[in-house]
Amino acid sequence: MIIDSHIHISLNSLFTKKEWKNFTEDFKVSCLGKILRKYKSKGVLALRDGGDGIGASCLARRVAEQEGIIYKTPVFAVSKKDHYGKFLGKPVDGLEDFKNEFSVLKENKLDHLKIMLTGIVNFNKFGDVGDVAFTYEELEYMVKSAEDYGVPVMVHANGCKGVSIAIRAGVHTIEHGFLTSDKELYGMAEKGIIWVPTLSPLGNILDTEDENFKDQLTIIKKVYDIHAENIKKAYEMGVKIALGSDAGAYAVGHGTGIFDEIRHFENIGFDENTVMEMCSKNGREALKI
Fold first, then answer.
1. Which residue ranges make up each domain of the chain?
2. pLDDT digits (tens, 9 = 90+) for 72-123
3. Is 260 helix (H, G, I), strand (E, B) or coil?
4. Are 1 and 46 in contact (CB under 8 A)?
5. Which residues of 172-208 are buried (b: 16+ CB within 10 A; e: fewer)?
6. For residue 248, which phi and psi values (nearest 5 degrees)?
7. CATH top-level class of 2-287
8. What pTM does this model have?
């Protein structure tokens, strides 16, 4: 089974967030069905969403069941107020806010808790991934809440500090993980944390030498090369790596993104059998199936 362990179905070419709220239920189902059937036609039969603030992934889970696709969603991602990530869900201002939003997530039967811990890679300033949004104590509390409810924790984290805090808190998977050090890689191996490195967003820009990023390609290439080396080191250390394309992100298509991810992994030196094991066996573990 081909599994894409990191997608965002709400980010696509069929509708915008603003348009979504004015659509009828039937039209929403039609749009989501079209996207899901594209995955199905290519043999991608299990998907893990990173959340959204409009209910698209929740509805997609229902549509996916009719299509015979396994679909896991956090409902919406939890971010910190005034930090990166509010477009994927609900920003919270402290733990009382989180408790309220977690109640909403439970009502909607979240499959995993998604937490936005850091920002993203800054293509204009090498090494910058934004602030770490939550304290260790806040993250630990959120992870414990998810564990008590019986769902895993999916954490968006980049940079040594953010990834280190996520490891200490005992999250289930770390998404992206750009610009980390050997210390964090060993930490993931030691704790059995699954890493979903998402090479495609940067790799696809580099492959096409995208004119939109012509002044940033040097930094993008530097970050990509460091990431590729870290992935190879992590594999040798015994880190479980699952493949997620970040489909919906710029230049990463739904249904095609996971094959981009497979290609990027093969291009950096992994053989086909190893890549497919990451995609299927480790993907199953990431999705808890």
1. 2-287
2. 999 999 999 999 999 999 999 999 999 999 999 999 999 999 999 999 999 9
3. helix
4. yes
5. bbbbbbbbbeeebbbbbbeeebbbbbbbbbbbbbbee
6. 110, -25
7. alpha beta
8. 0.97
